[in-house]
Hints:
- The protein is α/β, with parallel strands linked by helices.
- It has two domains: 115 residues, no CATH class; 196 residues, 3-Layer(aba) Sandwich (Rossmann fold).
- 35% of the residues lie in helices and 19% in strands.
- The longest helix is centred in the N-terminal third of the chain and has 18 residues.
- The radius of gyration is 22 Å and the shape is globular.
- It starts with 30 loop residues before the first strand and ends with a strand.
Amino acid sequence: MHNKIIHKPEVSDIPKDLIKPPIIEIFNDFDIFRAGMNYRCALERLQWSRGMIVEGSYATAIALYTWLKKRISSKHPVRDYISSRRTKELIHETTRKIFLEVKDHKINLHKSPENPFLKALYPDKTGFIISLPDILGMNGAWQWCKKGIVYPVLEHRIHPFYGVYFPMREKHLVMFDQWIKRNKQKYKNAIDIGTGCGILSFVMAKHGIKSIYATDINPNAVYSTRTEAERLGLDRCIDVERASLFGSQKKRGELVVFNPPWLPGDCYNEIDRGIYYDKQFFQNFFNQAENGLDKGNTLAIIFSTFAIEAGLTDHNPVEKEINNRQSFVVEDKLTRKAYEEGEYYSKSWLSEIRTKEKIELWIIKKS
């Protein structure tokens, strides 16, 4: 049932304002890396040069990337969340200076994978170089877009476009699906804030909510959710706008659903906006909620205690904002363990956090 595909995604005729990886069209002064060259020498050159272009085969590029990744990881072992993110940043800072040449929308290396995003995102560019990490990201994104993602809460796959956040975990989706199933008769319309790939909008549409207004600051997410709604025949039900939080606020929602970022931290790209929040994020959200909601409207906020369990913060920002305001009343708070008893998981610093983590669904009324 969950493997149903409406039809394959298209990546043609996309808007020109979408976010895409940077490219370089003049690259005569870059170093060259070929198979057989010394990896340690390449690392030294990467530290002071503008960058290196890989020639020969795609396997040569991957071998260099893999060696650099292992080298940096051995110098900076991961012991917890903070060291994990720092090591990832160091790997990215080094490998982003490895470039691949693209000619006529194809990677100019032997046995390179095809990627339609190269033509879709750069239709008027026939020759340029692009960083290897960006190519790897585009390759992964294309596989998700082409094959689609199966979620237990939907009867169809979702095909997220490049640069769009989509959940890799499912328990919070199941929790929300079960809650909206029990309460769907209360709401005729809803707002989905930070829609990402549109998963919560599609869940609400499945349960019969006829009017859904979805917002996202990421133009790729707006394009992705809008085209997905059209593909599913839900474009009359789901209206998507590029906007921050509540958007124009011309539309009111009896129900507002929000799956905000769960971790405090800095954002380096659009995907990060779905993962990390800054110090003012929740204060700004609840300020808008006070002005944008009518009395009796419902907020459904999905959150997690991961940041607390990982030692990244000492408080739950959702709970803090509710306690500091008189405009909201907690009607219900549903919780579920990230790792249920009996589930298998390999022991690591991450699993130690997951065993303590709880997924939360806050049901809040505007008073």
